[in-house]
Write a structure and sequence with these properties.
Shape: globular
CATH class: Mainly Beta
Protein name: Ectoine hydroxylase-related dioxygenase (Phytanoyl-CoA dioxygenase family)
Strand content: 15-25%
Largest sheet: 7 strands, mixed
Radius of gyration: 18 Å
Order of helices and strands: HEHHHHEEEEEEHEEEEEEEEH
InterPro entries: Phytyl_CoA_dOase-like
Pfam family, one: PhyH
GO molecular function: dioxygenase activity
Number of helices: 7
Keywords: Dioxygenase, Oxidoreductase
Amino acid sequence: MTGLHREELSRLHGEGFCFPVELLSREEAAEVLRDVRRYEEIATRVGGVLGHHWTYPKSHLVAGWADRLVHDSRVLTVAENVLGPDLLVWATNLFFRKAGSPGELAWHQDAPYFGWEDFHGRTVRMWIALTDTDRDNGTMRYAPGTHHGGIMPHRYRGSGVSALLRGEEVEFDVDDETAVDVTLAAGQCSLHFPTTIHSSGPSVSLADRVCFAIDFIQPGVRPLAGPDSALLVRGTDGSGHYDLEPRLGEEFDPAALRAFSRATKIRHERLMNVMRAGRTAGAAAGQAV
């Protein structure tokens, strides 16, 4: 694995995303998928913090397959091509779209919910397909070039249950004709920036779609609204903005579960503060109008 080509980097910076990026073999992706299913069973059985938060944001601190992926030299080479030699894993996230699921996500950006300062050009999400992804199984869709606009306002479009399930929608008119479906073979990945507008649709497939996302950041990205933690996976951290997480030793052992619980609690509390601050700012703006 030699990392990204110049054309791929150019597309990432120009359009806010690039894919497909070759990463794992189809056989390796299938093996990871089997481990993910086992992880799901264990998390469900254990319950507690792990049972509630097994998909996000710290599976790499407790599950061996996730730890191996965030340290895989092919993964890190791609991330380094984008961000440089000093890399933190800020979060890991499992995305499932069940076969035939009507669920979908509204057009949105990730950045408003992460509470970062000085993050432009210094963070990237790697979305690794553990199954094939296409329009039929509700794959992600990108709105090209939208990362150039910075963080945009978001709100719920509608007040019913369906609107709540779809999530907040960015206040930007996405041209559906130019939207791009993220079509990947198992083992390939896509990259996008946290201000790139994206969505996902319902599934009409007979098979599940499963993807694993890794959020890489440079150490200089500062967390707002409270302390945070991250895992140093390459280079050095000269900023001290994050409590550095320990690398997993034995999966699911007491030390791993303690590290997972602590990091999850820190992240949950900070992001709740970010959301409260956003709601307060939105309410004040509404009163001013």
